[in-house]
Write a structure and sequence with these properties.
By secondary structure, the protein is of the alpha+beta class. The protein contains seven helices and 17 strands. It is globular.
């Protein structure tokens, strides 16, 4: 990791921040500067910058946090294997999505997405890939349970359960800080995603209602971090990430929603947080078909989660769900 500090002078004042940084003589291309910005690695006067079009003025203090190893590193699109499939019944496929993979195809042909990962497996089972439809989404860096359905009718059946709040989900997040209250709720109004910044804001009125419940599972007093369980009652864009930031316990590794006041992590932990933010969709409960019993699926945590928990020497306050470590299908 390398810190690059720049003071804006009269020659670059008034320019967009990416152009001003480039003109300062740093050994980075404009494309690399934008990548650093997208990862949340640029601050202006102590505040994180989210858009390259932000203009700078004379005397502004710019700090870039540059990780050379990440400049050209792309997430490898490895085919899904049988172990990545949590459920395949009743025309429903549940996948344990890896962090860094988009839930659905995006405008960029270079962005890896889950259905593309599924193609070899679908072909091996003689399944028509064109009929596989996503039932919901997870943010690109969020890992965990993701549902797909075979055909529009089944997809709509599952999406109707989401719309009626009949599907129960549980997430786990590694967060900065240690909450005094071991359980709490957040109920607030949220904006949509700002097209300019890619961020969602808490509103005093208007917008969309949102609600989440939180429980502290484990803490590390030494490193001032926590493992928090989240049960969202609504499914707004970036809801959990915004709610945790609003609670002053932002998710570790989150580039869009962070606090400048968060205590820096020990280098061995900071290194783990470079690849993706630590939010995992651990379980989901739904009805697969009319007249069938509800099904609960649980997805193992990614390896980086386990490494962070171990290295931070977390103390568990409640018994951690061992089923998150091993995939399981439970019916009730």
């Amino acid at each position: 990791m390398k810190l690059i500090k720049i003071t804006i002078d009269h020659t670059t004042a008034g320019q967009n921040i990416d152009k001003a940084i480039l003109a300062s003589g740093v050994d980075l291309s404009r494309k690399e500067i934008r990548r650093i910005l997208d990862r949340g690695g640029i601050q202006c006067n102590g505040k994180r910058v989210f858009v390259a079009s932000q203009t700078v003025k004379r005397g502004d203090q710019i700090v870039l946090t540059h990780h050379p190893a990440l400049s050209t590193k792309e997430v490898a699109l490895s085919p899904l294997e049988e172990k990545d499939i949590l459920y395949w019944k009743h025309d429903i496929i549940a996948v344990n999505k890896a962090p860094g993979i988009a839930s659905v195809e995006t405008a960029s042909s270079k962005t890896p997405y889950v259905k593309k990962q599924m193609l070899p497996l679908l072909k091996s089972k003689a399944v028509d890939a064109s009929l596989i439809k996503p039932c919901h989404r997870l943010d690109k860096e969020t890992s965990g349970v993701l549902l797909f359905a075979y055909g529009d009718q089944k997809a709509q059946y599952i999406m109707d359960q989401f719309r009626k709040h009949e599907i129960r989900k549980v997430y786990h997040a590694l967060c900065y800080g240690i909450p005094k209250d071991k359980r709490w709720e957040v109920n607030c109004q949220l904006s949509g995603i700002d097209k300019r910044t890619g961020r969602v804001k808490v509103l005093s009125s208007g917008g969309y209602s949102s609600s989440s419940s939180f429980q502290v599972i484990a803490i590390s007093k030494k490193h001032n971090v926590s493992l928090i369980q989240v049960a969202p009652k609504t499914g707004r864009s970036h809801q959990i990430r915004v709610h945790l930031l609003h609670s002053k316990f932002p998710i570790i590794g989150d580039k869009k929603y962070s606090l400048a006041s968060s205590k820096p992590l020990h280098p061995s932990l900071a290194e783990l947080s470079l690849q993706h933010h630590f939010l995992h969709a651990s379980s989901i409960e739904f009805t697969p078909s009319e007249g069938e019993k509800r099904v609960e699926l649980k997805a193992p945590l990614p390896q980086l989660f386990h490494s962070f928990i171990k290295k931070s020497q977390m103390e568990f306050l409640v018994k951690f769900d061992e089923l998150i470590i091993s995939p399981l299908v439970k019916t009730s």
